[in-house]
Amino acid sequence: MRRSWFNRVSLFALVLTFIVVVLGAFTRLSDAGLGCPDWPGCYGFLTAPQAPEQIQQAEEAFPGWTVETDKAWIEMIHRYAAGTLGLLILFLAIVAVRYRRDPGQPVVVPLLLLALVIFQSLLGMWTVTMLLKPAIVLAHLAGGMTILGLLGWLVLRYGNYLAPVHQPGGVGLKLFTGVGLIILVAQILLGGWTSTNYAALACPDFPTCQGEWWPEADYAEGFVLWRELGMNYEGGVLDGPARVAIHMTHRVGAVVTAVWLGLLALWLLLRYGRVPEVRTAGALLAMALTAQVLIGIFTVLWHLPLWLATLHNAGAALLLLAVLLANHVVHAGHPDKTAPGAGKG
Q1: Shortest CA distance to 27 belongs to which of 85, 79, 64?
Q2: For residue 21, what pLDDT band results from cuts at 50, 70 and 90?
Q3: Cβ atoms within 10 A of the Cβ of 289, count?
Q4: Residue 171 scores a pLDDT above 70
Q5: What is the Cα gyration radius of the chain?
Q6: Which residues contact 164 (CB under 8 A, 6 or more apart)?
Q7: Domain assignments of the chain as residue spans, ordered by start
């Protein structure tokens, strides 16, 4: 009974993490990342200031800032959701420690998740106090995706979902899926760097960029990871060639990712499609990859509409889960089918 509740809370936390990741993208893309100049409150309040007297008090307490209630609410909703997620992960960590001696009870992953959530909270604070510094915003995105991935693995590994009795393939397939995960993570980071530096529209056309296949670009300037403190990075500070360099690198990464994961999906479907769990993983990977590629193309062609850019971030999260599922079905078997003590991860 306790194990069942642990798995249910893990699944709910996974769903909530996906929502938090999408809310974070929406907050960033709607320029609401500085909707509240302080943390964890908003202009000194627990909610976004709304009443005229609250707005006046907020602007007196934070001179030079203009209260934009709609953006403040976007930021605070994201914080509320992230806070709720933190409590769920704390619950999982407490249960993991309390029942750490039980066979099959995961311990390491819940504790790692708790450490990540604490660090993620600090990154959320620094994102605001350092005025959307790209390296901090990127780290915040990476932290959210890491939490999503770890929860996804926890749910798959210990929740009795899609666990084939006999694992398909050999070392080659396992290596291919593992490298696919590494490539996807690198591409997600490139996408985050593109977004945090406001380089998504550096190339307003597709498949060319500014009418050229390889336009002028400044890669050295585009990939300076740490810049001066005290500067407001909202809207970006890079010139055109630096933003083009970032955008073009993300495009090349998208091609590499699409080819690799496309081949992986075909491998799973055509070679091992007779195994229902593998067939499901391959089909989900193919669908997630196709959707993400199309969303990316139309995001450029339609000049970054907010809803589609947010959907592109959601697609990246779903693709990450799909690749994790592929790794799950070709790597470790279910812990209940392995030797005693195998579930301690």
Answers
A1: 79
A2: very high
A3: 23
A4: yes
A5: 22
A6: 275, 276, 277, 278, 329, 333
A7: 1-161, 168-345
| 182 and 320 Cβ atoms separated by less than 8 Å | no
Give the integer Cα–Cα distance in Å for 26 and 38: 19
- The beta-carbon contacts of 280-288 under 8 Å, at least 24 apart in sequence, are 280/162, 281/162, 281/322, 281/325, 281/326, 281/328, 281/329, 282/326, 284/322, 284/325, 285/261, 285/319, 285/322, 285/323, 285/325, 285/326, 286/262, 287/322, 288/315, 288/318, 288/319, 288/321, 288/322
**Is 268:277 a contact under the CB 8 Å cutoff?**
no
Peptide bond into 106 cis (omega under 30): no
Task: Quote the distance between the C-alpha of residue 157 and its chain's center.
Answer: 20
Tens digits of residue pLDDT in 54-110: 999 999 999 989 999 999 999 999 999 999 999 999 999 999 999 888 888 899 999
Report cis status (omega within 30 of 0) of the bond before 207: yes
pTM of the model: 0.91
Going 3 to 108 to 122 to 307, the CA torsion angle's sign is: negative
Which amino acid is located at 105 in the chain? Q
Which residues form the catalytic set?
75
Residue entry with tokens 């300037």: 221
Query: Which pLDDT value is given to residue 85?
Result: 97
Choose among 294, 256, 264: nearest CA to 282.
264
Q: What is the DSSP letter of 39?
A: S
Would you say 96 and 106 are in contact if contact means Cβ atoms under 8 Å apart?
A: yes
